[in-house]
Design a protein that fits this description.
The N and C termini lie far apart (46 Å). By secondary structure, this protein is an all-alpha fold. The longest helix has 30 residues.
Length: 240
C-alpha cells in the first residue's frame, strides 16, 4: 500500500483548531469505514462477507493511523477506494484466513448452549475454558487482520504468527482485552452507535495495539522508525 504524506504542518500551524479538525476528520473516517464494513458484510451475505469486510476495514484504518489520508475533501473517497480494492482482491484469502476462527466460534456457541444443562464444578470449568478460548481466539483474529494487512504472507504463515503474537506480551494482550470489554459495555449501553462507528472503533483500537507490538518486534515495521526517533534523546544546544 502506498503511504501518503501531508497534513502535519497544517495541524501544527492552526494549533488547537487544527487538532479539533483532525479529531473530527478521524471520527468522520470511522463512520465511513463502519458503513463500508456493514455494506461489505451484507454484500457477502454476512457469512462470506464478514472476513473480507473486516480485512478491508483494517486496511483502511491502518492507513488512517499511518496518516495516509491528507486533510481536505479526499479522505472519504480514499477510504472507499482502499476498502473496495482490498475487499475484491482479498475476498477468498480473507475467508480462508478466518476459517479456523469460524470453527472456534461454532464450538464456543455449542459449549455455551451446553452450559445451562450442567451444574457444579463441570459447568464452572467449562465456562472458564470457554472464556479463555474465546479471548485467545479474539486476540489471534485481530492480530491476523493487522498482520495480513502489514505483511504479504500466505494465510498459514499469518495464522501461525497471529497465534503466537498475543503471548509475546501478556500485559499488552490483557490491556487490549480490558479495552475491548470497556468498548463492548459502552456499545451495549449506546447500541445506536454500533451501526455508526461500533465495528470501526473496535478494529481501530485492536489494530493500534497489534501494530504497537509489531513495531517492537520488527525493526522493518513502518512505525519502528518512529519509535526509535521518539526514544532518541533530544540534541543539546552547542556552547561554541
Amino acid at each position: 500500500m502506498d503511504r501518503l504524506e501531508g497534513g502535519g504542518g497544517m495541524i501544527e500551524e492552526y494549533g488547537w483548531a487544527g487538532r479539533v479538525m483532525s479529531w473530527l476528520r478521524v471520527v468522520a473516517s470511522l463512520i465511513v469505514v463502519n458503513l463500508l464494513f456493514v455494506a461489505g458484510a451484507l454484500v457477502g451475505l454476512v457469512v462470506l462477507g464478514l472476513a473480507p469486510a473486516a480485512l478491508a476495514a483494517t486496511a483502511c484504518l491502518t492507513l488512517l493511523r499511518d496518516g495516509a489520508f491528507a486533510p481536505g475533501g479526499g479522505a472519504e473517497q480514499g477510504l472507499a477506494r482502499t476498502f473496495v480494492r482490498t475487499y475484491r482482491a482479498r475476498f477468498w484469502r480473507a475467508n480462508l484466513l478466518a476459517l479456523p476462527f469460524g470453527v472456534v466460534a461454532v464450538l464456543l456457541v455449542l459449549d455455551t448452549a451446553v452450559l445451562p444443562a450442567l451444574d457444579g464444578p463441570i459447568a464452572a470449568a467449562l465456562a472458564v475454558f470457554t472464556w479463555v478460548v474465546g479471548a485467545a481466539a479474539l486476540l489471534a483474529f485481530v492480530a491476523a487482520l493487522t498482520v495480513a494487512v502489514r505483511y504479504d504472507e500466505a494465510p498459514g504463515a499469518v495464522l501461525r504468527y497471529a497465534a503466537v503474537l498475543p503471548f509475546t506480551s501478556p500485559v499488552t494482550s490483557l490491556v487490549l482485552l480490558a479495552t475491548l470489554a470497556v468498548i463492548g459495555v459502552a456499545l451495549s449501553l449506546l447500541p445506536m452507535l454500533i451501526p455508526l462507528v461500533g465495528f470501526a472503533v473496535v478494529l481501530f483500537v485492536a489494530g493500534w495495539f497489534v501494530d504497537h507490538r509489531l513495531a517492537v518486534l520488527d525493526p522493518d515495521h513502518p512505525r519502528a522508525a518512529d519509535r526509535r526517533a521518539a526514544a532518541m534523546p533530544a540534541p543539546t544546544a552547542s556552547t561554541h
